[in-house]
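One record is set out below.
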Amino acid sequence: VSRQAESSFRAAIGDYDTILVRDNIVDLDIIRKKAREAAPEKQGKVLCAVGRICEAKNYPMLLQACDILNKKGLSFTLWIVGGGAEMEDLSALKERMGLTNVVLWGPQGNPYPYMMAADGYVCSSIYEGLSTTTIEALALGKPCVVTDCVGMRDILGDSAYGLIVPIEAAALAEGMERLLTDDAFATHYGAKAAERAAYYAPERCIREIEELLV
């Protein structure tokens, strides 16, 4: 589902001509429609992360990045939408760190109003195949700051459509700070997000998959 995943696959099993990359199908119109439903009230700047609470999503590092920004005196809220096996551990870590500006919303049937209401999207993953939630954030025109895990460069290029940072709390915090404080940065990547989303139109993705069947 991504060129980086393809490279890892080839390294594991061999360099075969029959290995192809095909994007996941994401219904952009449905996402935009669902995003218009009622969203939680917010005060001030809000960043949002969406995904299962599991090792791959690397949320403890995201909390570390928030702690760095809190100690610098930035005023913001982080929304984390999702549930999973590590929810209790993450909640306990949040309490130990005193992160009162981090809200764990748990699993939501419709996460898109949360994404739409936020001022930017953040992904802290250690690994992905192709980050569907990042594509969904692009569909909603959200400026993105993401970690440099598999698939992100397929989606965002070399930070052409969103900022890709090393998988480090300090680097992620720096990117988040730019989202929160640099209006030109956020506006630029918001516009680039909307531009890039067009590439993931389901018509193209479906057509390329159908071509394998004829």
